[in-house]
Every structure is written in C-alpha cells, then in structure tokens.
Amino acid sequence: MNGRFLPCKAVLPVTSLNRSFLKDNNYDTVCVIDGSQVPEELQPCFAVCKDVDAAFDNEVCCFKSNVLDCRIVYAPIGKLTDFDDVRRYAEAAGRAFARAIKAGAKQPLLLIPSSKDFVEADLVAVLGALAELYVPLQLREDVPSKTYRFEQIGFYCSENNKLTSILKEAAALEAGRFVARDIGGGDPERMSPPKVEQYLENGVFDSNVIFRSVVSNETILLRDYPLFAAVNRAAASVPRHQGRLIFLEYKSNSPPKKTLILVGKGVTYDTGGADIKAGGVMAGMSRDKCGAAAVAGFMKVVEQMQPQGVHVIGVLCMVRNSIGEECYVSDEIITSRAGVRVRVGNTDAEGRMAMADALCQMKERVIAENMPNAHLFTIATLTGHAVLAVGNHSIVMDNGPARATGHGQRLQEEGEKIGDPFEISILRKEDFDFHAGECYGEDVLQANNLPSSKTVRGHQSPAAFIMLATGLDKHGLKSECPLKYSHLDIAGSSGNLPDPPTGSPILALARTHLHI
User: Is 277 noted as a catalytic residue in this protein?
Assistant: First the structure.
C-alpha cells in the first residue's frame, strides 16, 4: 500500500498480534475501537481499566499494556442506536489515530473490527483511520518534514485474505479522496484553475490509463462554452486566474457496456461576482471547487481499479467568479451551447453556468458516438439550500430515465453501506416552471435574485435549469433518445473549513458504478 496518494510511508497488514510480532515490526501503539472484539492478550488490562473507569467505554483513553509492552489507545464506538450508521466506525478509527498522534506514536496498529449490523464496518474503519492522517497539500509542499504524521501504520485482522481485500480497496478509494482533498482544500491561489491543471499534469494519473486534455483558449471558450466564458470573463484578465476546462477519460480494454460522464463544478473562489457575497459569508468559498475535486478523485479511483467494460469521462470546470469591470452581470442574455437564450438573474448562481456547456458537449458526444448505457452527472457544491435541507449529506436528483432505473435508491443504499450517505430529492414540474423565461426573447431565467437558502425548492430548481440550458429536458423517458442524468448537490457533505474536504461522494459513486 505504498504510494504518493496515501498518508504514510508504509501501510503494512498484520495477521497475528503478539509481543514478538510488535517488537519485530516496531509498532509502538495498538488502537482498539470495538471493546467487544479485544484480542486475548489485551483482555486483562481492558478488564482492569473498565473496573476503575465508568467512562471507559465512552471516552478515548490511552494506557500501557505490560503484556505487549506498548501503549494502547481505546476509542470506543460506544452504544449504537437505531439511528446510528456505519460512520461511527470511521469516526472512532479517526479518533484513535488522532489520540495516538497526541500520545507520541510513530508506528500505530489498528485492530480492524467486524460488525453483524454493518457489513462494511471493517473497510469503513480503515478509511476513517487513513482520512485522519491526511496532510494538506500546501503544508506538504512548504514543510516537507511534516508530509507524514506517522512513520508506519499497520492493520490487524485474523483473516489474511479478507485483510488483503480490504486494504486493496481502501488504497484505491483513499487515493481518490487524497486527490480530491488536495484540489478541494487548496487555497484560491494554490489551486487556481491553471494550478489545478499543473497539479494534474504532475504525475497524478498514469497517462497510459487516463487521457487528459485541456481547453483554455479564450476564443474557444467564448465560441463553444459561452456560459462558462461569462463566469470566466472577469478572471480572464488575470493570467493566474484564467479558467480551464479539464477533460479526463478512461477506456477499459474490453468493449464498454456502460458509460459514466461526470461534470464537476470547480469554482476556485466564489465572490458572488457582481451580486457580491456580503455579511461575512465569503470566507470558505475556496471550497466551491469540491465538485470538480470529487470528479478528479473519482477518476483516480478508476485509474487504480481499472474496471472492465466501463468508459468514464470526467470534466473539471475550473473557473474563478471574480469581481471587476469585466464581470458578467444580472440582466445579460447569453445563448448557451445548446442554443438556449439564458437571462442572468444572479451572478452568484455561477456554478450552473460553469457546468452547463461542458455537460451539453458531453450530451452531444453520447449521441454522436452512440455511447452504450450512458449516465451523465453534475457534481457541485451548488446551494446553501441543500445544507439547510439535509445537513451534511449529499443529495441526488435523477431525471426521468435515471429515476426509472432506481438509480437514486441504489446510490443511497451503497452510500449507506460505506459511510457516504445520500438523501433523494425529486424534480417536479414547479422546478422547471421556476426557470421559465419571463421576457420576450429569452428562453430560460438563470436564477432569481435571492440566495438559494431563501428560495422555495432552492436545491431542486438548479437541476431543472441545467437540464433546460443544455437541452437535456428533451431527452426524457418519452423522447426518441432518453438519456440518464443525475445532479448531485454536495454542498453539505463536501466538508467546511477548518476540516479537510471529505471527498464525498467518491465512495458512494465508486460502489454504485464501478462494481468494486
């Protein structure tokens, strides 16, 4: 499990737990998160601690095992209720490693738990531990001595084959989340659009597996991606902020039976544009690129797993929503790539503008190339309304063809298993009516002039706008060419400062669509 996209120099499996093994491998800390699955060597000291500490099974603690001659960190899962989910295992494993760091551990070992209630508890625990070890990109670059928080980590499981399988999948998924955290968490200058392009060129992907292309020429952007170009207009005058459309493509060795196309919102900083964000809400807007970051991370998982029979395309719509004399403004009418006349209602609704033309292009490719079993996605930290509606969960909104396959339910079920939860929202006629053109000569209204958090159905209607602006509304169940499309709003699940980005919804998407 060595590699650039893992948070330690070496991740070693362990299939036996005894004093000589720990001594031979220099592990200095054993981390336990399930008090009902304590190895025989540790049961006496656990019994003693439990006798003297009524809070032993509820709070994180650190003590020494004389038998193993090393420190023990116990971060109990605690008593689970009917409303808990598998994330409790990730949280406990993260707390265990965080406490081990505070204790001075350099080479900790996690005892991987199993669960009858949560079939993926073991994998989720490993992912939770790895997530705790992430070191932000800029700290790794500026202070190389802090690149790793541990020298070595290990995982104990009594079943060798199971351990190998868990660690293989965890390595692939964590590599994807690592890339997503780097892009999503970079500050507005370190991860400006040109710097994202540079980052992805610097060995992130195996070029023999993932093909990369970039559109940055302003003339081409104006001609082929007019809605994106409008958002980019103010930033385009500053070379280090100029927008990029980054295309990543994977084709398996076997003929594709399935096509996945993911378009991600990559707003590297969202000032709100001319409709400027006021009242102290601009801080944190460097995270408005987490949709594109998740697309890049998903493509990293694809590269690692190399699933057969799948064709995958990722598009990162990297742009800065800047303020200035060149910025686009409300009341402008801009014709989209699909030929739809869009009247701008609010420049702070830039995410849907940034993604629409690239999505339209992908729709055109699906039709022109007759791509098999295609499913189009937009992934975005799009609305504050999503946070109000579902908190820190992702939201999936399917069009008719996608909904008819039960896609949202499958995504929710797989996300629940692996600790990447989704809520399902249904698109309604009212969402499309909301964006109907109001003036003669316009087809679609981009947005009203209120924040989404103060707009009825504020997270659903943007999906309707995207369909209208791209012509996807013409590809419903009863059309001659039905196309599956899903909009994922991850505003609540992507992670807010000061915490690192979460990498959501990479886990749920991978489990649902890559058959890992």
Answer: yes
